[in-house]
TrEMBL record:
The keyword Transcription applies. This is DNA-directed RNA polymerase. Its EC number is 2.7.7.6. SUPFAM superfamilies: beta and beta-prime subunits of DNA dependent RNA-polymerase (SSF64484). InterPro entries: DNA-dir_RNA_pol_su2, RNA_pol_bsu_protrusion. It comes from the Eukaryota. It holds the Pfam family RNA_pol_Rpb2_1. It comes from Dipteronia sinensis. GO terms for molecular function: DNA binding; DNA-directed RNA polymerase activity; ribonucleoside binding. Residues 37-125 form the RNA polymerase beta subunit protrusion domain.
Amino acid sequence: MSTNNAGRSSTGSDGDEEISTKEVWTVVSAFFRSRGFVQNQIHSFNKFFNQTLQEMVTGAVISFRPETRREVIHSITFLQLYCDKLTLTESDGTVADLYPNIARLRNFTYSASLYVDVCYKMIKKKT
């Protein structure tokens, strides 16, 4: 998209309808009013964790054969990813959910362990 001297945006030189800068900002403003800036980042992270990362891991297989026992093949298949819920244990023993803002204000690290279920198979070849 380019902007010409009259403050109008164009999507291309093939005769597409032009959109003014004011119209573009009206759409952008409406988007952030309805979804919010932070909500957009949260949605993006959740999609990465729940969908993209899971797709990368699911079904990945690692197979190897030890040099000392060539008749055996070890196979590991990665399955479901999951993450601990972040909690904070206070000095009096009470446990509460930990949120990013609390971690920032109290100078805590906001991190969690990531786990994956695996399926292990040992395959013996007949010699």
